[in-house]
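Open question from group meeting: does this chain pack into something compact, or does most of it stay loose? Before anyone orders reagents, we agreed to write out a predicted structure and look at it together. Recording both the input and the output here so the notebook holds the full record.
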Amino acid sequence: MTKSTHPHFDDHGALQWYTSMAEAKAAAARDGKRIFIEFGREQ
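Structure tokens returned:
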């Protein structure tokens, strides 16, 4: 599993952030949850 911390703030482990859409979709389907997608870029 490719989990990571949020790149901009510390959520204290409240959420699991995935860098792979396939893994995020599989986890959401397994757990019956929705996916939140955050787009951004480094400046």
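Observations to bring back to the group:
The radius of gyration is 11 Å.
The mean pLDDT is 80.
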